Amino acid sequence: MSSNIKQSLKDEFLILATKKPNLPSEIGSIILLTGEGMESSKVEHEDYGDTERRFEHAIQLFFYQDNQPFFVINGRSEQTRQLETMAKKKGIRGEKIILISNHLSNTLIQIKGVLEKNLPQPYVFVTDPFHIPRVRRYVKKWLPESKSYYSFTDHPINEEDIQSEIEKIIIYASQGDLSL
User: Which of 24, 123, 167, 173 is the most buried (most CB within 10 A)?
Assistant: First the structure.
């Protein structure tokens, strides 16, 4: 893979690190893309990583909206059930919660799950900033007609995350799952 492509991808991450998301005034669905972690023994007791950060950010975004969008929890089955309980405890009514449960934590599977649900738009995908470039590429390929926006936690982007995501983007592009 050429160093120009890697540098272009790295530049995309660096621009993202200084940018605030531009969100629509009304949102149809807030889609929480869960991450790794979240062992059931740790839920609500201590930090469990990516998923907790993303969940708290999505909760804040939900209550900031006047129109009460759908709160979509998209991840591994055991995570979605636990997060549904937590969302209800935070005050989100059950009829506003939609679960998209998968057998494993995989961004492509999560995006395809959105495609299958026919959720109200516009969508706002909630994740960590290092994840946005890959999520954007998946959405562009698998949900090309969607009105999609992205919101992310304040988790800092570090060099290790950038390099890991660049490698994933290059690998998944070579497999045809997304475009560079």
Answer: 123
**pTM (2 decimals)?**
0.88
Q: Nearest to residue 138, comparing CAs of 65, 50, 54, 31?
A: 31
State how far the alpha carbon of 168 is from the alpha carbons of 125, 171, 180, in Å: 19, 5, 11
Average pLDDT for 58-73: 92
Q: How are the residues of the chain apportioned to helix, strand and coil, as percentages rounded to the nearest 5?
A: 50, 15, 35
The pLDDT tens digits for 106-118 are 899 999 999 999 8
Burial status of residue 72 (CB atoms within 10 A of its CB: 0-12, 13-18, 19 or more) = buried
Residues near 123 by beta carbon (within 8 Å), at least 6 away in sequence: 27, 28, 29, 31, 114, 143, 146, 147, 148, 149
